[in-house]
Design goal:
about 150 residues, Cytochrome Bc1 Complex, Chain D, domain 2, two-stranded antiparallel sheet, about 50% helix
C-alpha cells in the first residue's frame, strides 16, 4: 500500500513538473502585455552569454567587490542606443561583443532584454546596430577597460 501511494505521489509530482515546464511562463515577456515578440535567438544568447554575469532573472549581483548591474528594471535600457553602445564598446568590467556577436544577434538580445525583463516599447533592428557601428567605428584598446 505504501509503495503504491509513493509511486502515485512520484507520478503526480513528475506530471506536475512536466506540465509546468510545458507552459510558457519563462518564455513570456515581462509581467504585462507587449507587442514585441520575444526572440528565441535573443533568449538563447542571453542564456549562453549574458546570464553568466547578469543572472537568470537579470537582477545582476555582486560579491567580492564585483558589482554586476541589473538589466531588469534598469531605466537606462529604455534607450536602445544605450544597449547598442554597451554591446559595441563595453562598459565598466563588461567587454565589448562586436567581435563575438553579429549585428543581428545584438539586436535579438537587446530586444529580448528590453521586452522580457522590462516593458520598453520599440525594437532594435540589425540596421540600427550596423548604423551605430558605422558611425562609432570599431572601439580602440583605450576604450576597452577590460583589455590589457
Amino acid at each position: 500500500m505504501i509503495r503504491a501511494s509513493k509511486a502515485a505521489f512520484i507520478s503526480s509530482a513528475v506530471a506536475a513538473f512536466l506540465a509546468a515546464a510545458a507552459g510558457d511562463a519563462q518564455d513570456a515577456p515581462g509581467s504585462g502585455p507587449t507587442s514585441v515578440a520575444v526572440s528565441d535567438e535573443g533568449r538563447k544568447i542571453y542564456e549562453q552569454i549574458c546570464q553568466a554575469c547578469h543572472l537568470a532573472d537579470a537582477k545582476g549581483g555582486g560579491g567580492a567587490g564585483a558589482v554586476i548591474p541589473a538589466l531588469a528594471g534598469n531605466r537606462n535600457l529604455e534607450d536602445p542606443k544605450f544597449m547598442i553602445e554597451v554591446l559595441m564598446k563595453g562598459r565598466g568590467g563588461m567587454p565589448w561583443f562586436n567581435d563575438i556577436l553579429t549585428p543581428s544577434q545584438m539586436a535579438a538580445v537587446i530586444n529580448y532584454v528590453r521586452t522580457h525583463f522590462n516593458q520598453f516599447k520599440g525594437t532594435v533592428g540589425e540596421a540600427d546596430v550596423a548604423a551605430f557601428a558605422a558611425a562609432a567605428g570599431k572601439p580602440d584598446r583605450a576604450e576597452c577597460v577590460t583589455c590589457e
